[in-house]
Amino acid sequence: DLQICQHRAPTCCTKKMEESYQAAVRRERTQSIQALNFELKYMIVGHITAFQEAFESLLRFAENRTSSLFETAYRPMAKEAAEPVKELFTDISLYILGAETTVESAVLRFFDSLFPLVYSRLINPGITDLSEDYTECLRLTRQDINPFGRYSKNMVTELSKSLWASRMLSQALSLGIEVINTTEHAALTKECSRALVRMQYCPHCQGLTLIRPCAGYCLNVMRGCLASVSELDAQWREYISTLEYLTNEMAASHDLEIALTGVRNSINEAILHAQLNGPQLSATVDKVCGQPKQQEGNLSPDNIVPVKEATEIQTFVMGHASLNNKRREFINYMKRSRTFYASIAERLCDGDLVMRDSSTCWNGEDVV
Q1: Plot region of 16 (φ>0 → left; ψ -120 to 50 → alpha; else → beta)
Q2: Tens-of-pLDDT digits for all 368 residues of the chain?
Q3: Does the chain have fewer CB atoms within 10 Å around its N or its C terminus?
């Protein structure tokens, strides 16, 4: 009653043993593919971790530098500006991790929150009544009167260019892991598991426990079994090319590190622009939002404080050169894995599975 290991000679197998062999080959195939995938997956997961750690430290550094701008140059509004700054960098982080948001909405939301503070603490520091309605009016007016000039748009442009590549790379790495996990658990067809039993275990039914499959025979069986997986070859090659493109984009002139550390300077320039145009802004705001209550006396001494750009940016960018090295190492490794899915059958037949240094091997029917 054997279904797979039928042979003219006497056999020591039963139908139940054939079923056990089918379960065994399915388990072994999954383990073999997992072993092949392990190094590739380890590299991608390692890079995701390294990228996220470097990115988080970069964000913290840029956020701290931006906060220190308000503490040193714009002290009257430093406490109130802390929350908008925190929100800006949280939004940037969420964007890179794939959230349904845009860099433009994050930056413009920040400037919407910043304008009431700049207006009431720097341009008109005598304002005492900053009601919710008046604050909201200032926020909405910001969109029409553009108090920060070209600097808010420039900041959107610079950040968008560099953060886009980072967002895409982050998503691409996660996709790579998903593809690898899916191929590990690809179900074997009934014909495939029968062919694997015939190749690996049918010799046992003849008492030939040491004989192994012939190399050519193994390749034919494996290619048949893994046809659906090897079809990923073209897409995998394209995927590697995309990773290469994204890592080159990240290392190009719109570098993530430079764009994020430049946020502080962009905000400073934007505030200076608003202060220099204070009288015109006040006249427009008075027409639109009305005149707020003022404290008596002049409370606006030297509001404009130039901020010196510290050399800490250079130090920081040099420190993050290691991130560029990691990207380079990673992409070089990934380029070597271009043929991963095309050569998977060869790699599975390349170990202890087949007979290499012997004149006899199993061809599916007999010892040859």
Answers
A1: alpha
A2: 788 888 777 888 899 999 999 999 999 988 988 888 898 888 888 888 888 888 888 889 999 999 999 999 999 899 999 999 999 999 999 998 888 889 999 999 999 999 999 998 899 887 766 788 888 999 898 888 999 999 999 999 989 988 888 888 888 888 988 888 888 877 788 999 999 999 999 999 888 888 889 889 999 999 999 888 888 899 999 999 998 888 887 776 457 778 888 899 999 999 999 999 999 999 998 888 887 766 544 444 444 444 444 445 554 555 456 667 777 888 888 898 999 989 989 988 887 677 666 678 889 888 88
A3: N
Q: Residue 147: inside a domain, yes or no? A: yes
Q: Is residue 88 part of a domain?
A: yes
Number of compact structural domains in the chain: 1
Whether this model's pTM surpasses 0.70? yes
What is the residue type of 306? P
DSSP state of 127: B
Type of residue at 150: R
Q: What is the DSSP string of 180-231?
A: HHHHHTPPPPHHHHHHHHHHHTHHHHTT--S--B-HHHHHHHHHHHTHHHHT
